[in-house]
Amino acid sequence: TKIADEKMRIDGGDIRFTTASGTQLSYWFDPATFNTTSTEFWVKVPTLPLGVTTLYLYYGNPSAPFVASGDATFELFDDFEASELSTYKWTRCGDISNVEVSGGYLYLKSSVANKEGVIYSIEDFSTTVIVEADVLNALNGKSYLGFVNSTKKGYATTMEYTGFANVMKMSKLESDVTYCQKLTDVSPSQN
Predict the structure, then answer these.
(1) Residue 116: how many CB atoms within 10 A of its CB?
(2) How far apart are CA 48 and CA 34, in angstroms?
(3) Which of 56, 138, 175, 180 would be 118's cystine partner, CB 3.0–4.6 Å?
(4) Residue 120 forms beta bridges with which residues?
(5) Distances from the Cα of 156 to the Cαs of 86, 119, 135, in angstroms?
(6) Full-model pTM
(7) CA 77/CA 26 separation, integer angstroms
(8) Phi, psi of 70, deg, nearest 5
(9) Half-sphere CA count of 165, side-chain side, radius 13 A
(10) Could you list the pLDDT tens digit for every one of the 191 residues in the chain?
């Protein structure tokens, strides 16, 4: 490999992506998967015209500063590496004691006394977006990730622990007076 041959830094900090005209592009990769068979790069390309678009990947400068940045590459990015939830990116609803950030993970907890903790991005999105997240489990409740409009109505992918296993569902989201969001299963149907 390029790293084993000492042609690329072990942390990937010397990697750069550019357009054919030499414009440097923002990019990000998960450091935990770098130099593995599952390494993926996300590159922010300003436009993709019809036809062929050429991008270049450069590496090999051992003194290059590390420039990979999720914040510069994505419309909204959070790797939850801070010790608390970023108030620049997120707002909370419900019992905020149920929201915890630790070790690169966001924990949304619930209990009998404290039913719900929900976070919303502060950023509004008016264009098509793709959402990606790793959900580990939804023990004793539901974990959902989705889109809502300004009235807090929308749809989400929901992971629910049924007592025996985690089940993935599509849910309709609506604003609720008692809780932050009311979930109604859409698929699979509960009939």
Answers:
(1) 19
(2) 26
(3) 180
(4) 91
(5) 22, 13, 13
(6) 0.77
(7) 13
(8) -65, -40
(9) 3
(10) 677 777 788 888 999 999 999 999 999 998 888 888 888 999 999 888 888 889 999 999 999 999 999 999 998 999 888 888 898 998 877 666 777 888 888 877 765 555 566 788 888 887 777 777 777 766 666 777 777 877 778 888 877 777 777 788 888 888 776 667 777 777 765 44
